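@channel anyone free to eyeball this complex?
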Amino acid sequence: MTTNLQRELETMLPAEDRLLDPADCWAYGADNSRLHALPEAVAFPRDAGAIVELVRLCRSLRTPLVVRGRGTGTTGAVVPVHGGLVLSMERMNRILEVDPANRWLVTEPGATNSEVQQAAGQHGFFWPPDPTSSAFCSIGGNLGCNAAGPRAVKYGTPRDNTLGLAAVAGTGDPLRTGVYTTKGVVGYDLTRLLIGSEGTLAVITEATLRLTPLPETRQLLQAVYRDMRAAAAAVARIMAQPATPCALEFMDAAAIGMIRGYADTALPEQAGAMLMIEVDGARAQIGLAAEAVRRAASGDGCLAIEVAATPEDAERLWRTRKALSPALRNIAPKKINEDVVVPVSRIPDLIDGLQALGRRYGITIVNFGHAGNGNIHVNLLVDPEDPVQMQAAERCLDEVFTLVLALRGTLSGEHGIGLVKREFVRRELDPAALRLMRGLQRVFDPDGIMNPGKSLPDALEAT
Amino acid sequence: MTTNLQRELETMLPAEDRLLDPADCWAYGADNSRLHALPEAVAFPRDAGAIVELVRLCRSLRTPLVVRGRGTGTTGAVVPVHGGLVLSMERMNRILEVDPANRWLVTEPGATNSEVQQAAGQHGFFWPPDPTSSAFCSIGGNLGCNAAGPRAVKYGTPRDNTLGLAAVAGTGDPLRTGVYTTKGVVGYDLTRLLIGSEGTLAVITEATLRLTPLPETRQLLQAVYRDMRAAAAAVARIMAQPATPCALEFMDAAAIGMIRGYADTALPEQAGAMLMIEVDGARAQIGLAAEAVRRAASGDGCLAIEVAATPEDAERLWRTRKALSPALRNIAPKKINEDVVVPVSRIPDLIDGLQALGRRYGITIVNFGHAGNGNIHVNLLVDPEDPVQMQAAERCLDEVFTLVLALRGTLSGEHGIGLVKREFVRRELDPAALRLMRGLQRVFDPDGIMNPGKSLPDALEAT
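replying in thread with the prediction:
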């Protein structure tokens, strides 16, 4: 049975620019959340003009349109739960312009993060957001989720590093937002409104990214603490001095325990928390920056600090951090990975609360993440084959979110909402703010076709 | 004759919280643009609850509501051209919370920029935006205009330095936006939408500002160039290396000529452009940073570079820059001061174009500003008593804006739109983007009471 959408696409697009067979479409129904739904069709637009046509088609048919980068997201944001058309941006992957004198790079959204880094790097620049999947994730996906990664502690998120966008709104209108300069106050800030909106307002067709000069060199420090409270106090001291690190990662006691069992780490026996701190800058200054950070990292509860003297040393220290993922896989078949954020001073309260919840629900919880931003990756280790444990995990997660909000935190720092956190959004957002967001959504997408069922929760009542 | 608004305010507010007499209201009808319009009434709310009542009152009466900081703006953004109520935020000026461990400061909008700097400074922090009128301008005004100042080149604008807001929308609903953390992707970015919206969407009642550690010290350099092209090339070189200056100001040949006639400056005879470059950082590193910048500032067309060796030296060098304002006042009774922005590499084209326009219209044009952002303060020196010259200035300005947009620039970097640039906005903004902005405005302000006649131009047709 052929649907109206499929019939229209057959005449509208050449065969190589679309998929209509369910077997072909299957792979475009999932992301890295393991959720899946089958779209009616997949289109591979090659320019903004094609996207205008496709949005208008979906509007006329009242059919959902789900824009998709490379599917590396973890929240189901690109899973077409209401069917319709998946717009895969993989063929709009050209880098259109690199302007080193003005520090911008114009790219189509399908380029990967690492392709952008390479193009910028040839001129001595980089684009700071890097969600550690840079070889696979697309710029459009980074922008759709405001995905940041470890360097955000010094350089900010995509919202801080994007000058302007071209997009096609859910109305079918192509538009341009923002400027080519680092200042500009003409009209409302649509650029940042679209960034992080998970394809619910518009399809981004081009982005002007703000570039940053590549630092000459980096230096890594590893600091071990008696407990999380001592480590969090060190994070606050590090962030209060001007030599802001370009990465400030942490692991809690449970995470350290995991890697201890898995790899030879040479960490002190009493280690209750660990920080990995990286500074970057000019070669002539890096030693002074590392020393400033070392001084700030020292203090009550600090058991040891090691400054990597050589690249091999740094490699060895990062190996400790990198041992964590295989260690977790080794222990539990599945981890539920959340990316909550709390103010830095509340990290110890969060970790204490998480350990208490873990004990109450009989679930091992392992925490690590971007300490400088208070962005904690909370990992519930579970067996998906065990329905009792999975139910317990669900109740536990509910309490995790309550705890995070009580600590003045937020439910997601970079993974986004998608499907999986959607019903929790109501707990965080002010009802009036949520009503206004729904109103904004209707302005961009009057027929409700843009990635329906994602990001904002459904209205409880007519608004 | 008493209006409905005045009658309602008499019962709603104690006498000391309102002004109804036109003579008393007079002073609240102007800003620093010298434009003026008399409001029906002025209210001095003391909390968000009072603002909710006042917005609802204005909504029920379909009366304009114009929120006002300290009136230091230059665009007429707070001039009540359609009458109604002026909401002066001067009594909501408490700094509510400073949290050094989490690097935030919560303030009411009526606090001045310098009061915030003092409160943050006691803990070793500052708030980077500083539109050089810090003693007089309010935080609410800074946020309303996204006013940035010279430090934006390193530290960004208010949009980059604000975590969250409390506000009352034009619907009368109080709301909270944003987070207390430096990452957060739950819902759409209403914080940045409200910043720079010039009171046309909501009244900001509280702001959570992101603090930055105070640098230990600063160092100033003055670099003189043969012409603007050589200076702009130096700006691009300076911005392409990692030691980003905390100020990167410039003056063109006309500006140098002005101060030469006015003060003893010891600048080389052939000076065609000048850069004032300031670096900040730790005492141990400042010399290296200054040296990196000195190297980048050197090159073809550079006539001289002086590094201030002592605070007295720096004082003397800044005196050159500060001589400009009195010099301009000495020469012309009035200056029309625009704050356009162009990509750094296009600054020379802009300056050349401005000089040609000046010759054609018989108007002296003097340019200086924030070179690192490409943010140029274009000053047309005119005699307001001379109607022929004033007409010529108007036509000239029109061509200035055309030139700026042709160079991929923007009409305003920090002063905003207000009344004075409103009819030019249509030339910059994409029509679809403008339609969407009007739609967003209707969501926040369904009755069109929020600072009507500002920021966005009137619709030409029904939309």
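from a first look: The CA atoms of residues 88 and 417 of chain B lie 20 Å apart.
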